[in-house]
Predict the structure.
Amino acid sequence: MQSTASHQLEIYNSLSGKKESFTPISKEYVGMYVCGPTVYSKVHLGNLRTFTSFDVIYRYLCHIGYKVRYVRNITDVGHLENDQDQGEDRISKKARIENLEPMEVVQKYTYDFHGNTRKFNLLPPSIEPTATGHIIEQIKLIEKLLNNDLAYEVNGSVYFDVVKYNKSNDYGILSKRKIEDLIHNTRSLDGQSDKKNPQDFALWKKAEPKHIMKWESPWSNGFPGWHLECTAMSNKYLGEKFDIHGGGMDLKFPHHECEIAQSNACFGTNAANYWMHANMLTLNGQKMSKSTGNNILPEEIFSSGSPLLSKTFSGSSVKFFMLQAHYRSVLDLSNDALVASEKGFNKVIDAINILESFKNFSKETNFDIDKWSKTCYEAMNDDFNTPILIANIFEAVKFINKVTIGKAELSEKGSEELLRYINSFVFDIMGLEKSDQSIKRNNKLDKVMNIILELRNDARINKDYITSDKIRDLLKENGISINDNNKDSSYNFD
Ligand code: AMP
Ligand code: ZN
């Protein structure tokens, strides 16, 4: 493990409801499964917040030296309109509406998802399995559950017997719900008459004749239930017990509770040691969601296509906005918040640019880089606390800006060290990028500033101090300080 990461990594485990020291099952390896998108429509910024949270977690685990197998699935069948097993399959419905083959729908929105993960600079997972590619594995699990007498077949459909399971296990261990409350709160919906208990969930559903996505099975021509795919794929690629299982907070119940039940019923384990949940991105105080339409799509931020936004934003500025909140906190998106975050992000990039081209070294560095980097690692080791990490990075930005106006000292060695750490935290761990725009902006601004400095210099040579002071004061009012300490004047952002 990386020596600088002297503190033990702690992860908030939704199963225990507290932070726990992270100890992987195999010393140097981590197995992590994250529930991927249901590819029946475009991903929105809420989805991307969850995938960004797990991208940073994946990046950090790799950074501190673990070899991580990161599995993130694509749900391309089985997710019904109502999470409680009712309604039409989301992909089949979209295929019917758009007059497409279901696999065309899947392909179209998988492309959309991948395009946006690239624009958001999210690393690809090690394995990206699809539910339809694992029907055989899902059928095998159902057979196992039937053999273990924790599932039953009715009219070609198979259900998980939650009440029976709960007699020797704890259904509700993750979501902390009580089965008695669930019995009272589960409405009797169409088609539930097949179930012994309303809270039982489908493992296999017999397809109606008009249903287009169906496979042969020992019970009927049908399709698997949504919760089963993740148990089948996590088990296949990570084993009966692995380290981390993640997803958005809204998946805790029923999806992850059902996964835990399936895994216990098949293998006698809770599937993962650490269950992690990323909190929701909201818009106008309401959860961003595909089905309600209360969302902003990534293409809308890149092209200013949303009436809620005053301008375009790069993927990295939006990510910076997201990472300024802890992954377990709810975050509300607004134009003002994005504008403020972009400003902050530009300050960080400007400081990195200054550091990269800085030459005016001193003998000493009067900033404790070692202590500062430890504080950054402590933040990340404290359940991936990116807001604290970013606050620390701003401390370094302040120092860099002081150096440029001659109010602090930086040695060549210190400059290399500081740049190495900042690059690690900003680019490798948080996965932020200098956008083309920011590079262009920086180059152009630099050119414009050099012209202004030259004009001001001419004014000074001509003893036109009224003009030269006016230029300096106007720039200062706009957050740009001119430094006349050197032979050639330079500038920096306040
Ligand atoms: P879905 O495509 O609906 O299966 O969701 C894909 C992932 O995005 C899941 O982990 C969800 O929990 C997550 N997700 C959905 N809506 C939001 C939201 N508003 N904020 C954050 N994550 C979300
Ligand atoms: Zn899942």
